[in-house]
Amino acid sequence: MQTSVAGLLRLTAMLERLGIRGRLLLAFFGISALAVLATAAALYAFLQVGDVVDRITTDRVPSALASLQLSRQAERVAAAAPSVLAATSRAQHSEVSAAVALEMSRLEALRTDLRDATLGTVPLAEIEEAAVVLRRNLKELDSLVVARLDVVARKEELLNRLAATTTGSHRLLATGILVMDSRLPQWRAVAADTSLSPDRRAAAMADLVQAIAAYIPQQKALLEISAVNDALVKAATAPTRGDLALILFPLRRSLAALETASSEIDEKLQTRFRQRVDEFKALTDGENSIPKAREEELAVLAQGEKLLAENNRLSRSLTAAVDRLVAAADREIAASGREAALVQRYGTGVVLGSAFLSLLSSVLVVWLYVDRSLLARLGAVSQGMLAIAGGDLRAPLPAAGSDEIGRMAEALSLFRDTAVEVEEKNLRDVAEARQRLVDAIESISEGFALYDREDWLVLSNSRYRELLYAGLEAELTPGTAFEEIIRRSAERGYIRDAEGRVDEWVAERLWRHRNPGEPWAQRRGDGRWIMISERRISAGGTVAVYSDITELKQREENLAEKSTALEALSSKLAKYLAPQVYSSIFTGRQDVRIASQRKKLTICFSDIAGFTETTDKMESEDLTQLLNHYLTEMSKIASDHGATIDKYVGDAILMFFGDPETRGVKEDALACVQMALAMQKRISELTEVWRDMGIETPLRCRIGIHTDYCTVGNFGSEDRMDYTIIGGAVNLASRLEQEAAPGAILISYETFAQVKDTIDCEEMGHVQVKGIAYPVATYRVIDLKANLAGASRAVRTELPHFRLELEPELMSADERGGAATALRDALDRLSHKPGQ
Amino acid sequence: MHRIIAIAILVLAAMFSSARSEVLIGVSAAMTGRLAWIGEQGQRGAEMAVADVNAAGGVLGQKVRLISVDDFCDPEQAVAAAQKLVADGVVLVVGHYCSGASIPASKVYEEAGVVEISPGSTNPQLTEQGRGNVFRTIGRDDAQGFIAGNYLADRWGNKKIAILHDNSTYGKGLADETRKQLNKRGVTEAVYDAYTPGKDDYSAEVAALQTAGVSALYVGGYHAEVALIARAAHGRGYMVQLISGDALATEEFALIAGSAAEGTLFTFPADPRRNAGAAAIVEQFRVENFEPAGYTLLSYCAVQVWAQAVAKAGSLEPKAVIATLHEQEFDTVIGRVDFDDKGDLTRQSWVWYVWRGGEYVPVE
């Protein structure tokens, strides 16, 4: 017991020394060895089956097949043998005989094969004996057939000779018959001719009798020849010896009769005839006769039949023997088959058993050894690794050991220690970096705050705190929410905007904080201005920088105050300037400097007719009021139409279109004319107002318009400048104004050319202007063509000696009749030339 | 096993070659009927020749076997006989004897590549057909008729001459050749007519000639009918000179005609029995109680010529044998023989014979 325990301990120690690799190898070798064992068992079983099958295929089957072939061959030989006997020619015989010999030699070969293949357990001796006798018989049969063929050939030859002899005999006798035939007509003629003398007829009769007498033996001979021939032909095919004997007797008698007849044949033919008779005799009796040949043939045939019968018997016995052989082989094959099946069953059992054992042992090895002693420890190591990877550096680790897993556990604990160390070092580094950052933030002059993604204060410097929340020290710890901070500062009145609307302001501020944009200024409760610049950072969260801009803001306010004062000043100044001039100077579009340019402008001159006479009696205040009222109204209309008012000279106004802004010469001219019409209309409206004010005589305005090139610009000294126009065109416009009737508008041809499509005008004749070499065509403006559509039109003509003013629409019927009479009278007067 | 089969095949081949060590030749003639005697001449002549050839060792070391067939001197039967011989595998046919049989049969032989040597057919047409396989050991009727015509003109020109024929290829052919020559000589026959062969009595025909006063009668026909005509004339006491052709060269003519045969003239090739070279053979026939008259020796000659040609050609091949027959000369019982391109004898000798005392003798 003690020794076994010691041995077990020793074994365990040895296994420990082997390590994982060794132990795994040992386990695999164990499994493999069991598999090999199973395979070997299977192989052995299959080899056994193969042996048995081999025995069947190499021993039993060939021998059985050979026996079968032998049997068939024997039957074929037996079947072929009779055909040898049936051969009728030498060629046929040799062919058949060769065929039979071939079959026989095959039989011999099969017999030899069988003798080699079989192991003496079957009746081979019997087969051998039968085959030998069969062979001998066939040989005998063959020689017999040769003999028979000889006899048949001889018989054939004899029959040919018989035919030749018969023909020859007939030939000899035929001549006589022919002569007899040829004489018959003569005899008939003699017998019929009664005119012949009795002597001659008697002589003819005698001749006839003699001829017939000579002819009869020939006739008899002919009969006997036929009988002999027939008998001999019959003898050649006589079925038995007895038949032959029967035929010979009448044959000999016929020959004797023939011999007798030959002596009575014509001498010339007698020798030949006797020769034929001798030939017949030789064919009947003697060594080479037909009956003898037939006798020999019959003997040969009988012998042949006997041999054939023997052959058949032998062949049957051969077949029977071979059948027994085949049956024996069959039995052996069956036995071998059973044996093979048995071995196969055992083999299958062994294979299945060893396969099961192999599987079982594999399971045991894997479960008891691999799983328990290796995989469990490996699992512990892997769990330790996962824990470390998950950051849990304090997870329990398996104990170290001497094998691979033990060493792995050792390495793992080492790795964990290193990881712990690294972690601590990292924490230190982070703290240092943070401190540096805090220091850096602290050192900047602006306030700084960092809020995280959830808007909680992460970091802020002291400047921030003193700038925004002086006295709130304790509440600005990291982790305070942004909303809480601002709400608190709003509630404490730190924020000017939030006074009285804390919630509203907090919402606004939060929105701004979450959607930061341009920096903006915040007014604090104590009057300071703080510039807040917020920015989202990439990691989420917001950085806010706060700067004190109070001083900047104060300077700005001062500037704004000055600017407002300047604006007020300039608006006062504007009243002394044309609005266009003012705006173009104040917007900087035009410099205030001495400069001019030449442009095509439309110039308008207006004046109140008889103003001095009207105003002489007025008090100064009333005059000023009237004039200002008039000028204000006109200026308003001028401004509305875009005119540039150059200057007021008493009650006269000089205006022009086309500078500083122009809509085009045509448009400028049109605008000018329209403005003039508007002014006249407005004056007629104002007449009522002024009448109420006590002005009896209505103010009537004259307007002159001309379009031409002028020089426009700033004229004057460096100290004072005037924006005005200079040129002949101004003079012409002034001249037109003076020419115009009160309340009328007079325009030059140049202007008319620009407006004639829109404005209805009336030609007024020419005026001479100082400084202009040619007379200027003038036109009175009536109204806009649009206003006149469908309205009455006056007919007006004014010549040096003729003046017509006709307004038919305003006239009554009587007036029209009177006017027509006056016009006809005038027409009559004009039609008559002076002096006629 | 294979060795055994090989041996068996060798044995088989040897047996076949032994079976073939026999050369078949045929003789085809009228063996029965009215021309049986001529047939017998042919057969006996050929048999003797074959026996002599075999005695001398055969042809190319092979024995020759003769088979004979009966053509009845009939054109249709001749074709049947020829086909039987061809089927039996003969390489030579001696025959036929009647021209009317020879001519149709020659076509069968040509197609089968069999050599035909006729000892009796005299009609020129036989060799004029251009069949390469046909030969003859007798002259042609144009030559025979020429002699006969000349004779008739010379001897009977101033008398009435009658020419009869039996309408057979041979008979009419010979009669026409004779007539042609006669007419050429400026003599016109008094009667030219045909008779029906195979009848027993020709008295009516003879009576007509007698009435017409015919002095010389030339008959183109076979011996039996000529003999019966002679008998009929004799019976009537009508002394007409009977003249005919080669068919009369058989003793049966005298046996049928009896005393009427006396003085009948006919033409036949120069009698080979008188040849010195033929003496031993003639003697052999006579020992066997057979007179080798007429076509006997011509038939013997046919076999002889063939056997020599085979020997010279060294082959049994028909083409070689035929070529040799055309090219070479042969020493035979009828003298030296050679054939022209048509297969005719280059030398023909027609001789006049007359029947005297039961046998025919050359006219002195």
Q: What do you see in this structure?
A:
The complex is a heterodimer of chains A (836) and B (364). By secondary structure, chain A is of the alpha+beta class. Chain A is built from 20 helices and 15 strands. Chain A has helices at 2-86, 90-117, 124-192, 198-236, 241-262, 267-284, 290-389, 404-443, 462-468, 482-491, 502-514, 550-574, 579-586, 611-615, 620-640, 665-693, 728-739, 749-755, 785-788, 813-831, and strands at residues 447-451, 457-460, 520-523, 529-536, 542-548, 596-609, 644-649, 652-657, 700-716, 721-726, 745-748, 759-767, 776-784, 795-799, 802-806. In chain A, the strands form 3 sheets. In chain A, strands 6, 7, 8, 9, 10, 11, 12 and 13 form an 8-stranded mixed β-sheet that branches. A 5-stranded antiparallel β-sheet of chain A has the order 2-1-5-4-3. A two-stranded antiparallel ribbon of chain A has the order 14-15. Chain A is elongated. Chain B is an alpha/beta fold and 364 residues long. Chain B has 2 domains: 23-139 and 274-338, Response regulator (Rossmann fold, 3-Layer(aba) Sandwich), CATH 3.40.50.2300; 142-268, Response regulator (Rossmann fold), CATH 3.40.50. In chain B, 46% of the residues lie in helices and 19% in strands. Chain B has 13 helices and 14 strands. Chain B has helices at residues 2-19, 36-55, 75-88, 99-112, 125-128, 141-156, 169-184, 203-212, 223-235, 252-257, 279-287, 296-313, 318-327; strands spanning 22-29, 63-70, 92-95, 115-118, 134-136, 161-165, 191-194, 216-220, 241-244, 265-269, 329-332, 335-338, 350-356, 359-362. In chain B, α2 (36-55) runs parallel beside α12 (296-313), α3 (75-88) packs parallel to α4 (99-112) and α6 crosses α7. Chain A binds chain B through residues 90-91, 94-95, 97-98, 101-102, 105-106, 108-109, 167-168, 170-171, 174-175, 178-179, 181-182, 184-186, 266, 268-269, 271-272, 275, and chain B through 1, 4-5, 7-9, 11-12, 15-16, 18-19, 31-32, 34, 36-37, 40, 200-201, 203, 224, 228, 231-232, 235, 252, 255-256, 258, 289, 358.
